[in-house]
Amino acid sequence: VNKKHKNVTKVKPLFKVYIFDEKKSSLKDVDIVIAWNTTMANGKVKNGTSKPSTTKGKAGIATIKLPAQKKSTVMSVRPISISRSGYQYNKKLNKKYDRCRLFTPKCPFVTLSFQD
């Protein structure tokens, strides 16, 4: 966020995924689908699945658009599918965050919070 807007009540989150092979070279043409769920301030829970997104360019980045959310919402995302012909997904190479590899049994999802 570059600057804060005082009267913003909703956000449109983007989730960026960077994909690399075992040699740490970025990969394009990797198809990614994520599941999401939200818990709103009133305790109501909504679930959904992203549209498929494909990594592009030299950086191997897929940008996944998630549904608009109220700022008071907490959202969790987890991968459903990460695939490319001729490659096998290896969770053991996922980035570590807070001493835990993301999207593995120990850290199956990422939590997003949109509050200031």
Give a description of the structure.
This protein is mostly beta strands and 116 residues long. The protein is 0% helix and 41% strand. The protein contains no helices and eleven strands. It has strands at residues 10-11, 14-18, 31-39, 45-49, 53-54, 61-65, 69-70, 74-83, 96-97, 100-101, 110-113. Strand 9 and strand 10 form a beta hairpin. The chain is globular. The mean pLDDT is 87.
**% residues in beta strands:** 35-45%
Mean pLDDT: 87
Low-confidence stretches: none
Q: What is the number of strand segments? A: 11
Helix run count:
0
Helix amount: under 10%
Order of helices and strands: EEEEEEEEEEE
Biggest sheet layout: 5 strands, antiparallel
Structural class: mainly beta
Overall body shape: globular
- Straight-line N-to-C gap: 10 Å
Radius of gyration: 15 Å
